[in-house]
Write a structure and sequence with these properties.
Layout lengths: L3 E9 L2 E6 L8 E4 L12 E5 L2 E4 L1
Antiparallel strand pairs: 1-2, 1-4, 2-3, 4-5
């Protein structure tokens, strides 16, 4: 099961681009904002575990 941390790179309407902290060479991941905590902003750090994102 995937467990990792992301940085919110960009917010674009109903979507956010997330960049893995441990693999910065990978392409950003596009995620629907409905799946993310409401209070995120660009630069927020998120922890992903068990199909849930939480703010660090």
């Amino acid at each position: 099961m995937l467990v990792c941390d992301y940085i919110v790179e960009k917010i674009d309407g109903d979507y956010a681009y997330l960049q893995r902290e441990d693999k910065p060479e990978e392409e950003s991941k596009l995620v629907a904002r409905a799946l993310l905590p409401e209070e995120i902003t660009e630069g927020s750090r998120l922890h992903y575990e068990m199909m849930q994102y939480t703010i660090i």
